[in-house]
Each structure stands twice: as C-alpha cells, then as structure tokens.
Amino acid sequence: MNFDPWYGEKNLEGNPEYHDAQLLHINSFFTVPILAGCYAILCIVTTVNAFIFKHSIMTNLQRVMLYQSMCICVEIFITATVYVGNATGILAIPEMLAPVEHATWILVHADTPIVYLIFNRSLRKAAFEWTNNHLLKRNRNRIHNFITTHMM
Fold first, then answer.
1. Integer angstrom CA distances of residue 21 from 2, 6, 55, 97
2. Looking at the keywords, is Transmembrane present (predicted)?
3. Which ranges of the chain would DSSP assign to H, the alpha helix?
C-alpha cells in the first residue's frame, strides 16, 4: 500500500490531482539515511569518548542521559524506517498491519516520558510525589466535605 491520503475513497484514491507522492519520496529518500548517519556519528563519538579515551570518564548522570537518548533514538528510527518504507512502497506490509503500523507511529512519540521515568530516578520520584500529593489532597477534601455536610 503506497501512501495516499485518499486511500479507500472512491474517485479520490490514486488521483494525481489530489495527491502527489513525489515530495514524499524525496523527503523519505533523504530523511532515513541522514537520521541513520547522525545516530551512527553520535554513537561512535560517545563510545570513543567514554571507552577509548580513558581521561573522559562518564558520570552517572551522563550515562543515564545517554541510555535515555539512545532508547528514544533507536525506537524512533526503527518506527520511522518502517513507516517511510511502507509509505514509499519500498517495504510492503500486509494491509491488516497498517493500523498497527500507524498506531506504533503515534505511540512512539507518547512513550518518551515513559523512557524518562524508567531511567531517571529523580524525575520518577518527583512524578510519584506529585501524583500522590494530588490524589491524597483530592481524597482528603472529599472526606472533609462529606463529614462537614452530612454530620451536621
């Protein structure tokens, strides 16, 4: 299935008057290799700095931030490659998997905070404290309101 915003619509599907895929193909042709190159350079430089040159020691914070960014970059790159490959017709997936592909494309942007919460202890602690404070405060107000209105 090639990317067509009018897919499934009679008289509009595949109509070049309403849809031109040339810009999509040009963008996709350059985006995936550029992203792959940038991510490869980032990984190589980080590895060289951390392990080959012993004078630059990574702190715990730098290591956590590296893991966070690598997890996010790898998952976005894989999802984008599959999405672009399918949209340009290079990588064909079964039509029944198209909704799954689209859902993963949407959700890959929503799971970044989850990656932060998994790796960042101080952020996780602050998020749980904030959540607990708001939940407990809301419950305290309900109990107080119930007691003051129904016991008088």
1. 9, 12, 50, 21
2. yes
3. 22-47, 60-88, 98-110, 112-119, 121-150
The model's pLDDT over 131-144, given as tens digits with 9 standing for 90+, comes to 888 777 665 555 55
Q: At what angle do helices 121-150 and 112-119 cross, to 10 degrees?
A: 100
Whether 98 and 8 have beta carbons less than 8 Å apart is answered as no
Domain limits, the chain: 1-119, 120-152
Position of tokens 């929503």? 110
Side chain identity, residue 119 = F
Per-residue pLDDT, 25: 72
pTM of the model: 0.59
